[in-house]
């Protein structure tokens, strides 16, 4: 299991999901598309690699390339993220030992 996705930590981290959902609603997009569009807006050499097994999710993910976030959108996301303390470790303790080996 991944500690960050435990029920307790998911509730604590919901603020970030809500923020992306609010921006998505304003843009007639999905939260996943906003997250991917934000990654695409960071640097030209950053290429998100979303995983999916469903064609409709692939099409949804590709739609992120058509979303141009404004400087204000990016600023809003960065400001909000800086105020949200993500709860829970990314990996279980045993898996964390394998990172940066």
Task: Provide a brief overview of the structure.
With 101 residues, the protein is mainly α. It has six helices and no strands. It has helices spanning 7-12, 14-27, 31-42, 55-62, 71-83, 93-96.
Can you characterise this structure?
The structure is a single chain. This protein is mostly helical. The chain has one domain (3-96). The chain is 56% helix and 0% strand. It is built from six helices and no strands. The chain has helices at 7-12, 14-27, 31-42, 55-62, 71-83, 93-96. The longest helix is centred in the first third of the chain and has 14 residues, at 14-27. The mean pLDDT is 89.
Largest sheet: none
- Give the helix level as a range of percent: 55-70%
Q: How would you spell out the order of helices and strands?
A: HHHHHH
User: Helix- and strand-based class?
Assistant: mainly alpha
Q: Give the tally of β-strands.
A: 0
């Amino acid at each position: 299991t991944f500690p960050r996705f435990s029920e307790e930590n998911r509730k604590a981290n919901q603020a970030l999901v809500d923020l992306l959902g609010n921006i998505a609603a304003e843009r007639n997009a999905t939260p996943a598309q906003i997250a991917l569009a934000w990654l695409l807006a960071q640097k030209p050499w950053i290429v998100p690699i979303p995983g999916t097994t469903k064609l409709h999710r692939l099409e949804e993910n590709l739609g992120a390339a058509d979303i141009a976030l404004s400087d204000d959108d990016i600023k809003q996301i960065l400001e909000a993220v800086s105020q949200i303390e993500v709860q829970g470790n990314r990996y279980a303790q045993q898996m964390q030992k394998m990172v940066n080996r």
